[in-house]
């Protein structure tokens, strides 16, 4: 069995990822609450949906443990992928990964195929994101054409407050990381700046995922380590 799928290795990576995730989340929530109470972002933006009746007619199902469990278990992995049900995909992936790890060397051909498929999908995502600037331009153009240039003022203020908060959060996280790890954090931050900006502009960490993996591997993090931490982050 490869070293990177050993339970001890998986447990160590998961515990570190979980701890960092919780700490960063608590810090983000605290900072967000402070900023919201100070600036009240979005107060001047009134985006009314075209069909208010349709929105009002949407009924959300009460959240219970039964609903959560039934929703987490996929009826079919193909159906889950088609509907982009991330939780169901993650649950299936966990069971598949545990099964592959349990049969040892017999799973090597499948593991190699899946590893190759991961690289293909990351490359495909990179190609799709080449069109991101065009889609952003089209979305903003449509918004201006529908609501006029005045909407850009309110939206600009909102985005300014949003990026100010992100900048403050980054400064705090980088400062704490530098105190704990050392000055190498500055080099790491510089190396992942490009995918980080892509994530900010597209509001999607998945869009920046291929570039982030590439930068981390060039920084010195092993490919398997990157993929495991990313999988845990998605699960959390």
UniProtKB/TrEMBL annotation:
It is found in: Cell membrane. GO terms for molecular function: symporter activity. It holds the Pfam family SDF. Keywords: Cell membrane, Membrane, Transmembrane, Transmembrane helix, Transport. It is a multi-pass membrane protein. Its main location: membrane. InterPro entries: Na-dicarboxylate_symporter, Na:dicarbo_symporter_sf. One of its GO terms (biological process) is dicarboxylic acid transport. One of its GO terms (cellular component) is plasma membrane. The keyword Cell membrane applies. The chain crosses the membrane at residues 18-39, 86-103, 124-144, 164-186. PANTHER family: PROTON/GLUTAMATE-ASPARTATE SYMPORTER, PROTON_GLUTAMATE-ASPARTATE SYMPORTER. This is Symport protein. It comes from Citrobacter freundii.
